[in-house]
Amino acid sequence: MSATIKDVAKLAGVSISTASCALNEKGNVSDQLKDKIFKAAKKLNYHPNAAAKQLKTKKTNNIGVFIYGFSGPVFSEVLEGMNKAAQEEGYNLLVSSGSLSEKIINQRQIDGAIIFDSHIKDEVLINYSLSNYPVILLDRDLEGDNISRSIINNQEIVYNFILQMQKKYQKIAMITGPNDSYNALGRLEGYKEALKTKNLQPIIYKGDFTYESGIAIGQKLTKEDLPDLMFCANDETAIGLMEEMKKQGYKIPEDMAICGFDNILWTRHVEPQLTTIAINHTEWGHDVAKSLINYLKTSKFLEIGDPKHEVIYRASA
Amino acid sequence: MSATIKDVAKLAGVSISTASCALNEKGNVSDQLKDKIFKAAKKLNYHPNAAAKQLKTKKTNNIGVFIYGFSGPVFSEVLEGMNKAAQEEGYNLLVSSGSLSEKIINQRQIDGAIIFDSHIKDEVLINYSLSNYPVILLDRDLEGDNISRSIINNQEIVYNFILQMQKKYQKIAMITGPNDSYNALGRLEGYKEALKTKNLQPIIYKGDFTYESGIAIGQKLTKEDLPDLMFCANDETAIGLMEEMKKQGYKIPEDMAICGFDNILWTRHVEPQLTTIAINHTEWGHDVAKSLINYLKTSKFLEIGDPKHEVIYRASA
DNA sequence: TTGTAAGCGTTATCAG
DNA sequence: CTGATAACGCTTACAA
């Protein structure tokens, strides 16, 4: 069994409350006693019991992060940023995915929640926030008093990007991603909106974020179809398309320029290197977690800036 | 404020203990009362307070996972598997990386720990395990009573693989990874050992797990240097090498066969497709977590099989 | 079958 | 400056 504060108090020859005050640097304890108490604590390898502390103070020092799954680079980057922020502020990350998430929220195992998972019911979140716990939603809508939100504004990013590219390329087509992807939909909207602004008809090919869908579309493209620029909803599709076009003897970007989205590692290893858009997910996660923790300390969310993005111009477009 | 068991008891018109027994399906409560109690709980949206429960039962229902960082595919796969196991068994994952990890362990916020991080001090782990908490170490050594271990046996996997390839290829060289990588070192040892068994001299090139290091080595390789097979410590290096060799006009695998390790997505998108070795990290994580949870339920670790691996033969070797 | 009461390890209030 | 003591919400003997 580990030592309790009782043991420390006994060894130091003081009362429990004095020991508690000393260990928490609170109130008035003489330096002499303090020293004795700290020595005793060290000797007994004392560490306060988290559950007891939580019960008393109603603070768990944990923030819950609820994600849909662990796979893919996005989650690990976001988590990395959040972990960094949590560490800086002395909080722990309780990461959960799946059916147990709602239980953790309901049981108040956390001081606040970051939701990156559309499966958790609104009702649970509202209930939680109503008990004065802060919640930050990522890429999802919900209004409420202690609820804040942050989204990757794919639509706006793509809108601006396409308008920019329009200066150089006349005919711009797009390969979309799957319909159930938040990101794919936003990117598509941004594309459509940009063309609308310029009074142009959108040309849309249906992809699914895979390398193979890029290849398949490349195989169907006839010479007359070729746009000046093909904007792909993600890099994998763009690279698949590029390989297929090269195979058919087309020159990139002369015959058709190609660009993607995400800036995956492989964009640098294809020939020509792929022009793409990078989102700084790590920084985003960091800012989001900081905002939540700020709420825990001051009852106010820190403003979360839009996730940083950067257009990376390379040879492909 | 959330409802407590007291509120439930009052609303149902029973004592606290009766309510507790009913809600935990324990002891003897008449069906009639039980029904009343459950209805009251539902009405009040009652959820037991985790801290109080933990304090009393000395069980947190959390298992701690301590990793070195979130980046890279390995951690997300391992975490995914662990999360799945935890979910199946009703446990939560407290994931932490960095300086706060030791605090979580010391404060007994978790019923058991999985350590995938060489930075946590042995002393902390020993102390923890001495208080009867189970610990599983991944890719790391430490002996103890409630301590179990599991490692990816890179050395053995590579040893067997190279012996196998030896039947087809005479001269086998290797590109290593960085010296501070557990995986790189094991793979190198396996290679050396296999050649030794066959009484052959190892031929070793120093890489660093990057695509660029594969290119650089390819540029230095002269025609006379070419081995029959180049075994690369990871796929990125292998692919870099392959691209460079192709650029120089060599035919893969005719002039030199190439194989890698990890089975990253891109191994299927190069020409020729890369022969490589896949480790099932998700399953590994799942098994590890299951083993720990089994200990929590029965005081015995479940046997963890060696992480499953599979040699994936493709056209490059 | 149900209720009373003690106690888990803390913190915090309030006398001494 | 220090020390009883109550309380946090829950579980669990044990008594009724």
Query: Topology as H/E string of chain A?
Result: HHHHEHEHEHEEHEHEHEHEEHE
User: Average pLDDT value of chain A?
Assistant: 94
Major interchain interface with per-chain residue totals: A-B, 54 and 53 residues
Question: What is the number of strand segments of chain A?
Answer: 11
Question: What's the main sheet of chain A like?
Answer: 5 strands, parallel
Q: Briefly note the CATH topology name of the largest domain in chain A.
A: Rossmann fold
CATH superfamily of the largest domain in chain A: Response regulator
Low-confidence parts of chain A, pLDDT < 50 over ≥5 residues?
none
Overall outline of chain A: elongated
Structural class of chain A: alpha/beta
Oligomer: homodimer
Please write the CATH class name of the largest domain in chain A: Alpha Beta
Overall helicity of chain A: 40-55%
Strand content of chain A: 15-25%
Which sequence of strands runs across the widest sheet of chain A?
2-1-3-4-5
Gross CATH architecture of the largest domain in chain A: 3-Layer(aba) Sandwich
Total DSSP helices of chain A: 12
Question: What is Rg of chain A?
Answer: 27 Å
Span between termini of chain A: 65 Å
Instruction: Write down the domain tally of chain A.
Output: 3
Description of the molecule:
The structure is a homodimer of 317-residue chains. With 317 residues, chain A is α/β, with parallel strands linked by helices. Chain A folds into three domains: 5-48, no CATH class; 59-149 and 281-307, 3-Layer(aba) Sandwich (Rossmann fold); 154-279, 3-Layer(aba) Sandwich (Rossmann fold), CATH 3.40.50.2300. Chain A has twelve helices and eleven strands. The first copy, chain A, has a five-stranded parallel sheet with strand order 2-1-3-4-5, sandwiched between helices. Chain A has a four-stranded parallel sheet with strand order 7-6-8-9, with helices on both faces. In chain A, helix 11 (235-247) links the parallel strand 8 and strand 9. In chain A, helix 1 (5-12) packs across helix 3 and helix 8 (154-166) runs parallel beside helix 9. The longest helix of chain A has 18 residues, at 281-298. The first copy, chain A, is elongated, with a radius of gyration of 27 Å. The N and C termini of chain A lie far apart (65 Å). Chains A and B meet through helix 4, helix 5, strand 2, helix 6 and helix 11 of A and helix 4, helix 5, strand 2, helix 6 and helix 11 of B. Strand 2 (92-97) of chain A pairs antiparallel with strand 2 (92-97) of chain B, so a sheet runs across the interface. Chain A binds a DNA duplex (16 and 16 nucleotides) through helix 2 and helix 4.
